[in-house]
Design a protein that fits this description.
The complex is a heterodimer of chains A (518) and B (372).
Chain A lengths: L1 E10 L2 E12 L4 E5 L4 H4 L1 H11 L8 E7 L11 H11 L11 E3 L2 E2 L5 E2 L4 H10 L4 E5 L3 H4 L6 E5 L2 H8 L29 H13 L3 E4 L6 H6 L1 H4 L5 H13 L15 E2 L7 H5 E2 L5 E2 L1 H4 L4 E4 L7 H5 L2 H6 L1 E5 L4 E5 L3 E6 L18 H9 L3 H5 L3 E4 L5 H6 L6 H19 L11 H7 L4 H14 L3 H17 L7 H9 L2 H10 L10
Parallel strand pairs in A: 3-4, 5-8, 8-9, 10-17, 10-18, 11-14, 14-17
Antiparallel strand pairs in A: 1-2, 2-4, 6-7, 12-13, 15-16
Helix pairs in contact in A: 2-3, 4-10, 7-18, 7-21, 15-23, 20-22, 21-22
Chain B lengths: L1 H9 L8 H9 L2 H9 L6 H4 L1 H13 L2 H10 L2 E4 L20 E5 L8 E5 L6 H16 L3 E4 L5 H11 L4 E4 L13 H10 L1 E4 L11 H12 L2 E4 L7 H11 L3 E4 L10 H8 L3 E2 L3 H6 L29 H10 L4 E2 H8 L3 H13 L3 E4 L3 E4 L4
Parallel strand pairs in B: 3-4, 3-7, 4-5, 5-6, 7-8, 8-9
Antiparallel strand pairs in B: 1-2, 2-6, 10-12, 11-12
Helix pairs in contact in B: 1-6, 2-3, 7-8, 8-9, 10-11
The chains are: A alpha/beta (518), B alpha/beta (372).
Chain lengths: 518, 372
């Protein structure tokens, strides 16, 4: 006897179609599982046997061969429990083989026959819809993720018996899925940060143009507080982005069953002890997304940037540039999306109090230099906005008025994004990522502006890349102001956001700072 | 021969500049000491330990003192002895005087008074511009500016002096051929052209932490007055001031804001009786029998009360400079006081920085980089 059905699996972020074939032959009972199964797949046999028995269903008492095709791909995970079980039941005669055609089935079984949730259900449903499948059978716990997809029938099954009944044509009781339609609150508001106008202005620019940003300030100056408020001033994700971002989190197994779709830009803040694999993704045979992919279309906050491992920071360079990361392992090559806004935080010196008005810094200059030296030039070049955040005195904390609300900042950000859309096209990158040649062509500098930039580059020792980054920031500043032309004032403000380079420079070679014309 | 032997003795491995004068006194001269060591009859193992004595005996037998002197000369290093009269005699009569000094660069003209301008490494823009300003004015008056070539105040004192075309002396805490801090390489070159480097340590010696407080006694010994520009309570500049007091030199201090940690040391000095420096005249007054080459009075004082540079400057820039003249400010304070948006203030500050008026300080503050 022979039966087959279609299932799928996930490799990186890609979904692969896997054909499950079961064949029985008349010799001593036993099982062969072929098609490069990994340990979790090989063990599925025991789960399936128990699940079938506990559902009061017959198990074929013959030599069973299970094949997972294509045979050359390694199969990972517990996606195939349910499809293999159903194919076996078909072989055992409980199910008409025709009922298995035209459907995708995935799911893990528990020993009592319940279908358990899996990772990546949303990604699979999206892929199935794209590939023209009419129906996908998912574990009930994953139904919430994919239930609202249009153009494909998404069926959630709670246990093996239910799946069998459904495939035999009996109607399935459909649970009510509550899907919160509205924004689930606003998140922390901008107005809670007092003072820090410089940092807030920089965040607004970062949100508008997609620029990366670093805050340099003593402990307690509010770096994390500022960073956490960036998602709140970003435009909400559009429906397509909601699905894209949610399916990434679905693959990572991070979706919350009660709030299955991420409607707001994600915010990730990994600890500085993270490995480079944890940060950019990877793994031995089956790459999984890292923090940079989980913060796709959102914010990645790296507090205490110099404390991160050097190798972890250096691998950030390529994704920061291209918006994606390619992981190459001996068996697979896979690409994860990673278009995020990097927000970094660091102290002004190892002890944290350099330049503070209340406490004295105890670091020798050599150590401060070493501290800045830990952030490589190429990485720094990719951080457009470098802002020093002073600590407020207790008095200022009490006396300063509350700031502007996130909502009104977001309104300006949205306008600036609209301008960019009109200029670069609807689904194209922001000012921070657009091709430099296009940037130069669409926003040429006047003579006065060119002269200013040359003078500034000379004085600040800007690299060619730093020069270009200033241009991008100036473009965003002009967009925020609703201007098409970049003026000297925009460029001048942009240049002011290179303060870390200046600090690094200050410790590398102190400027004369004393004019000749006394 | 005495000169060659002294130089060779100072270059012995593990020789301490503090021990050398004592050993010389014991042996009655460098030539005598050299011969004693070479013959292994010095009895040094009782004084400096067997290991070091053996090391020296070995080195002495392999070295020709005259050779040492000529190889130093090849590197452009001179050896200055007390009897040369090349430096103010005061430096040889301090407590624990050096037996000799290595020098590189030009020879100081005789007669010019030496003044030290020292202070914190982590200086504010106020400190840096004050140091540069005072050094520049002193140099114009014909004063030799002495400092320690460190980051911050020291470096800016040297630069201010060099800019006025003056003679500046950098006293190092390491071998004279070592560049420390390494970023000051170009500055060292400039000092060698227009002034000189001094060190009591043999060429090649490392910049060890305890050497810097020690060399401060030489700074104090060289000068008639020590001006401390900015110093926290534990600053090395206060050690220089201490030495200066012990040696009977004048100690002056530049006052700073009371809420700035790096002005606590200088303000405390003033409280204890150091003279307050409000302008270069205050320093010149302390230099007895000295006729300045040039009449000071352009910087500081009344001249700063009015913005003297009208003309082509943007009106907002004038407002900002007027605000910054009262001390460094954070962006938030500037926004509040000037009543302009953060974006606009940032762009004005950038253009002021390009013109050399404003610098950014650690802690997100902006300060003036030169006096009005």
């Amino acid at each position: 006897m022979y039966a087959r059905l279609d299932s799928c699996s996930i490799l990186g972020m890609e979904v692969m179609r896997i054909e499950v074939e079961v064949n029985t032959s008349g010799s001593l009972p036993g099982i062969h599982m072929v098609g490069l199964p990994d340990a979790a797949v090989r063990e599925s046999y025991r789960r399936i046997k128990a699940a079938i028995a506990n559902s009061d269903l017959p198990f074929p008492r013959q030599l069973i061969t299970v094949n997972l095709a294509p045979a050359h791909l390694r199969k990972e995970g517990s996606y195939f429990d349910l499809p293999i079980a159903l194919a076996m039941l078909a072989v055992a005669g409980c199910l008409d083989a025709g009922a298995l055609a035209g459907r995708l089935v995935v799911g893990e079984l528990s020993l009592n026959g319940t279908v358990r949730g899996i990772r990546g259900a949303l990604a699979m449903a999206l892929w199935a819809r794209r590939e023209g499948w009419k129906e996908i059978l998912l574990p009930l716990p994953n139904l919430a993720e994919a239930a609202r997809l249009e153009g494909i029938e998404v069926v959630g099954v709670g246990n093996l018996r239910q799946a069998l009944d459904y495939l035999q044509g009996k109607p399935l009781e459909r649970p009510l899925i509550s899907w919160p339609e509205e924004e689930e609150g606003e998140g922390p508001c901008f107005c809670e940060v007092k003072g820090q106008l410089h940092a807030k202005r920089a965040l607004e620019i970062a949100a508008a143009g997609g620029h990366n940003i670093i805050f340099i300030g003593p402990p307690g100056s509010g770096k994390s507080m500022l960073a956490e408020r960036l998602p709140g001033i970003l435009p909400p994700l559009d429906p397509e982005e909601v699905l894209e971002v949610s399916s990434i989190h679905s693959v990572a197994g991070l979706l919350d069953a009660r709030r299955p779709l991420l409607r707001r830009p994600p915010f990730r803040a990994p600890h500085h002890s993270i490995s480079h694999v944890g940060l950019v993704g990877g793994g031995k045979n089956f790459p999984h997304p890292g923090e940079i992919t989980l913060s796709h279309r959102g914010v990645l906050f790296l507090d205490e940037l110099p404390e991160f491992r050097r190798d972890a920071l250096e691998v950030l360079r390529q994704p920061l540039e291209t918006g994606m990361v390619t992981i190459s392992r001996s068996l697979v090559n896979t690409t994860f999306p990673a278009r995020f806004i990097l927000v970094a935080g660091m102290n002004p010196c190892p002890c944290g109090f350099l330049g503070d008005s209340m406490r004295h810094c105890s670091c020798p200059p050599g150590r401060i230099k070493g501290y800045y030296g830990r952030i490589s030039g190429p990485l720094l070049d990719r951080i457009d906005l470098q802002v020093e955040v002073p600590r407020l005195t207790p008095r200022e904390l009490v006396e300063l008025p509350r700031g502007e609300k996130s909502r009104s900042v977001r309104a300006r950000v949205l306008q600036a994004r609209e301008r960019q859309k009109r200029r670069w096209g609807p689904r194209t990158p922001l000012n921070a990522h657009v091709d430099m040649a296009r940037m130069r062509k669409s926003s040429p500098l006047g003579n006065e502006e060119k002269e200013f930039m040359l003078a500034a580059a000379g004085r600040l020792g800007l690299t060619a890349r730093g020069f270009d980054r200033c241009l991008r920031v100036a473009r965003t500043i002009a967009d925020l102001a609703g201007r098409e032309r970049i003026t000297v004032a925009d460029l001048a403000e942009a240049v002011q956001y290179r303060s870390l380079e200046r600090l690094q420079g200050a410790w590398a070679m102190e400027g004369v700072g004393y004019g000749k014309g006394l | 021969m005495e000169r060659a032997c002294r130089a060779a003795l100072a270059c012995l491995p593990q020789m301490s500049p503090l021990a050398l004068p004592r050993l010389l006194a014991m042996a009655g001269g460098a030539v005598g000491l050299w011969e004693l060591i070479a013959k292994d009859k010095s009895g040094l193992e009782k004084v400096v330990g067997e290991e070091r004595a053996a090391l020296w005996v070995d080195a002495c037998r392999k070295t020709d003192p005259v050779q040492v002197l000529s190889s130093l000369a090849e590197k452009g290093i001179r050896v200055i002895l007390p009897e040369d009269g090349a430096l103010p005699q005061g430096v040889w009569s301090i407590y624990d005087p050096p037996a000799l000094l290595f020098a590189q660069g030009r020879e100081a003209g005789s007669g010019a008074p030496f003044v030290a301008v020292v202070g914190a490494r982590k200086a504010s823009s106020y400190g840096k511009r004050s140091a540069a300003f005072l050094a520049c004015e002193l140099a114009r008056c014909g004063v030799v500016v002495v400092s320690g070539a460190a980051y911050g105040i020291d470096g800016h004192a040297h630069r201010g002096c060099l800019e006025a075309g003056g003679f500046t002396v950098a006293v190092l805490g390491c071998g004279i051929d070592r560049v420390y801090p390494p970023e000051h390489g170009p500055l060292f070159e400039h000092i060698k052209e227009q002034g000189c480097l001094l060190s009591e340590y043999a060429p090649g010696e490392d910049p060890l932490p305890w050497r810097f407080p020690h060399r401060n006694r030489i700074i104090a010994g060289l000068v008639q007055a020590v001006v401390v520009v900015e110093a926290s309570e534990k600053s090395g500049a206060l050690i220089t001031a201490e030495f200066a007091l012990e040696e009977g030199r004048e100690v002056l201090a530049v006052p700073g804001p009371i809420d700035s940690p790096i002005s606590r040391g200088t303000n405390a000095l003033i409280q204890k009786g150091a003279k307050l420096v409000a302008g270069v005249e205050d320093v010149l007054e302390e230099l007895r029998y000295f006729q300045p080459r040039y009449e000071p009075g352009t910087g500081g004082g009344e001249a700063g009360a009015q913005l003297s540079f009208a003309g082509d400057m943007h009106p907002r820039d004038k407002v900002l400079l007027a605000l910054l003249r009262d001390g460094s400010q954070s962006l938030d304070r500037l926004v509040e006081m000037a009543g302009v948006s953060p974006g606009e203030i940032l762009s004005r500050l950038a253009s002021l920085a390009l013109k050399g008026w404003v610098t950014q300080e650690p802690g997100g503050k902006y300060g003036m980089s030169r006096p009005l």
